[in-house]
Predict the 3D structure of the following.
Amino acid sequence: MTMEPCYYLVILEIERAQEYRCDDSDEEDDDKESEMTLGDIEKIKNDSLAKFNSSGIEEFSMDEAEVDEMLGDRSYSGGDIPIETLLEVESKNALKKNISFKFYFDSERAEFDSENFVEYINIIKAKYPSIIVKKEKKQYEDWDKIWKEFYSPIKISSIFEIIPSFLKDNYQSDSQCFVYIYPGQGFGTGGHETTHLCLEFLSELCSDDKNKRGPFSFDNAKILDFGCGSGILGISALKYCYKNNLNFSVVDLLDIDSKALENAQINLEWNFDKSAFPKNVNLIQKNTARGLNLQGSKEGHNLIFANILMNVLLEEKSYLISLLAPNGFLIISGLLQEQMNITLNEYLRNNENNDLKLKLISQKTKGDWGALLLQKIDK
């Protein structure tokens, strides 16, 4: 008898804390303690991937019927949804207290990994008893088709659009640079707010007018994507250079995870033909910026992306700043809104004993997340 292939689904229902609750709230402290913070939720998501081999996460707090009810006559059955409408849905979604996640497990160890993940959640339930966890065994239908349903093109700006690699031959983008990302390994697909914010900053440093330069010159630029994951940020900058015939100097993609670098290599291959494959791209496996011997590190990097957790940003602060060239730009993200001022103050504190100082150029928020754009200038 042939066993039907299957996968396992772990469903979590979480009551999350309202981060911006009014001071005169009548809720008891005990109730607040039973609610999970965004940091707690992010840790569960990260652990599911890193420790329990989850193959994907689906987040939802509003179902299709709720969205239709909210939009009324503006509900959509096809075509492009205006960005204003998406932002409205996103803002109202962020206010919902209850949120659910589906964690998918489909490896050879799926039953074992999913059971261990449930045990991990049950330990957390001791502190947050409002969590509801369910595990389901699902018959394999068309997994390739199922996971593709969760990914669609992401329009960042008139310059950048992120396109799932499986749509390369069937999707026409009107953006100046369309970046293909293979989304099957969970290393950064452009859907997370922090990646979106970094790409918004990159768009502002570029220019969508061929007769006008943006504030950043990509000619002979040295670029570092620190904690690169899928390489989406460095590859986007690289794609802009190629589309505009700009001669960059080097692009360094650095990550602690060898699988992330393998994914970055796959994404480079999706974006560049062999005949035009960039030569000055380095994939570097390292867990710190300390002691980096990068091709461009002697003169410094002109543009650095650091989209990573706050504790790493603070630990690596002095090394990242030292790698930044005079007049270079540093894009920092991976931060919850309440972490932005702490991180910014720590980076600006570096100005006290140096001839060059960091200046805050801009800051952005999207949902619960934020990003900073800094530049190293003369005092």
Notes: The longest strand covers residues 324-336. The longest helix spans residues 110-125. The chain has a mean pLDDT of 80.
